[in-house]
Amino acid sequence: MKVKGMLAVFLSCLLLLVPRSVGGASISWNQRSFSVNGKPTMLIGGSFHYPRASPSEWPSVFSEMKANGLNLVQTYVFWDVHEPVESEYFFPSDPEDPANLVLFLQEAQKAGLYVHLRIGPYACAEWNNGGIPVWMTTEHDDVTFRTDDSFWLEKIEGFLDATLQVVSDANLMASQGGPIIMAQIENEYGNVEYAYGAGGARYVAKVADYAVNHPIGAEVPWVMCQQGVIASKGTSPPSNVISACNGYYCDNWIEDHIEAFPDQPHMFTENWPGWFQKWGEAVPHRPATDVAFSVARWFAKGGSFMNYYMAFGGTSLARQVGGPNIITSYDYDVQINEYGFRAEPKFSLTAALHQAIYDVQDTMFDAAPVAGTFNGTESCETHTYFAADSNKCSVWFSNYGEKNECVSDNGWEIPAWSVLVASGTATATSAGSAATSCGDLKFLYSTKQISESKPANKLSAATFDTKIENIELVSTVKVPTVDDTGDNVFAFDSPQEQLGMTKDKTDYLWYTAEYEAPAANDAAILEVEAGLAGGVSLMVFVNGELKVTERSVSDAQGQLEDVDWATHEALTIPVVEGINSIAILSMSTGLRNYGPYIERARVGILSDIRVDGKVLTNIVHKVGMDGEGSGGEVEEGGGESRDDGSLTFYKMNFGATAEGPLALDLTTMGKGFVTVNGHHIGRFWSVKANDECNPCDEADYTGSYNADNCRTGCGDYSQRYYKIPDTFLSGSDSDSPNEVVVFTEIGGDPAGIQLVSMSMVDN
């Protein structure tokens, strides 16, 4: 084994400790680790967003996180959840409310987990509008988000104050004996700072200063992720804010971080063990061996904090999901799946790795690892740690190449794209000198030990005795005309942007006008420009009949169009001689959650409406869908479904049951949303992925991963099963049936809807 570089003489060095808090738990850090009450520990966490699961699920998910070997949970605090109305903060105490942040943090502490609280204000998270309240856009059109804008700063400081006060009042800060040992301000801002110029640099400094000097927040270390360190990630934060890395791999970032922040520990705040999925896409899959390789390389090269984003993804209920065009399931292909089951082999392979890390962590706190190579091959690396106060040591053998050409001096084969962890005994070349070698090696773990992990499993759905019954058509939405009136009807000379009208309280906005045709024409040209920041689809009705459906998918296989902001549509419609009623329904599927200038995103029709070149005026706007908030019940206008099956509410029920977890199979329906007992469980869309798949071998996977690799389920529905949270159901001993309301935009067969019980089976 050849050592490269000089061995750090750590026995005579005292590493700088930066303390946080007095009384309660004390949090400190140096360049090697975080310490709680003076005891250093490797922090291995996982993300779990409280609104994406019912409170009854939280304890079991936390228990599974502990079983996986995690000691920390990371969550965003979603600004739009907690300030749904400007200046009215909402932090509920209802034990069944998934917005109950305090209860979530208390349950985490009961499970023995530390907490990394990411307060935002911007979350991303594939969450609607990135977690920023839509009223910031619709009520304040002159504000610029995420820069040195005085109004923006005022609002985010208010939210930060409110959040910290709530958790402090509940004694949840570490200094109070609570689980919160660190916090985060902003999120991946370095990825977009280039767009804001000097204002972005000032913003970084101001928000960092506000956080670390906050009378409550000063108790814990603050983090900024994807910020500074390298030039492409914007302005570096102040040195008292810890800079962190996000990605599939971050081990090569460590060297740059040492140069930029020599006194900071190395944090991997988001290691993506999977990826999110869009409508029309196959299921993303990251091989378990690649996840383990990423984690092991991180700790081998000096990392001390690593967090899976996600550990449990859950479900984006109601209209939470962003994107646009992201599916309702937020499973994320992680080790604890959407239904709370262990996903193998990812769960057991990572659990074994975590145990190996804990087994050797005492060797890792005193100095950076000593790097070396073996076999005379650059891709065959060792990283060796020596404990300062004992003869313990550990060696991390890596093969980051794609060939099986690495064999250690003691004969261990390190397969391509893998890491082997071993413990040993340190020896010195002469008495009294620092240890220079690690011998008597004991094998602990290999990221390729897939055969020793539990066999691969998969989600399975099964019908059972309880069935969907009593299906009935509740109402068919009446196509509006220019004569419609009501509190949700507004007339303007030209089309108005959708969010300004709906305030994002609904996915739907009607634009209705009249066109006088000089003669009948089966191919009149309707022209509009549609803003796609909400994944907009259009339905065009002429004289009450559906004539065109223009969706944000470009072919029958469901491939989503890659259009950022707007698209010009020239659609062919039939008109009769004389007055024609033109009604255009704009339908969104979640607001943009990533990128600069989110406040500039526009939805709906952004231009004049033209028919054969003539601009239509007196545009009557109708917000929402009749029956949308009442289970399809309307005072008038309901009736039999149209021949095309569009815009129809169906009602059905199923009996109380102890089976579970439960889901609805909605593949016989088109696109729309579902409620169960009045609770919105999310959007559905029975669109299929294309037929071309690139599955990967779990054991032999090599090479840098990206989300286009290894997808599965090609040719299948992007999402088939829609989870019903248990708190939405009637109790198993209840005499009341569970009522399901399905709204379909584009038809379908409600008789084919099935209630299924979910479980895991061997793959």
UniProtKB/TrEMBL annotation:
Superkingdom assignment: Eukaryota
Species name: Triparma strigata
Stored PANTHER family: BETA-GALACTOSIDASE RELATED
Gene Ontology terms describing biological process: carbohydrate metabolic process
Entry annotated with the keyword Cytoplasm: no
Domain Beta-galactosidase galactose-binding: 647-730
Family: Belongs to the glycosyl hydrolase 35 family.
Annotated catalysed reactions: Hydrolysis of terminal non-reducing beta-D-galactose residues in beta-D-galactosides
Domain Glycoside hydrolase 35 catalytic: 33-356
GO MF terms, alphabetically ordered: beta-galactosidase activity
Signal peptide: 1-24
Coiled coil: none
SUPFAM superfamilies on file: (Trans)glycosidases (SSF51445), Galactose-binding domain-like (SSF49785)
Keyword S-adenosyl-L-methionine on entry: no
Keyword terms, alphabetized: Glycosidase, Hydrolase, Signal
Enzyme class: hydrolase
Name the record gives this protein: Beta-galactosidase
EC number: 3.2.1.23
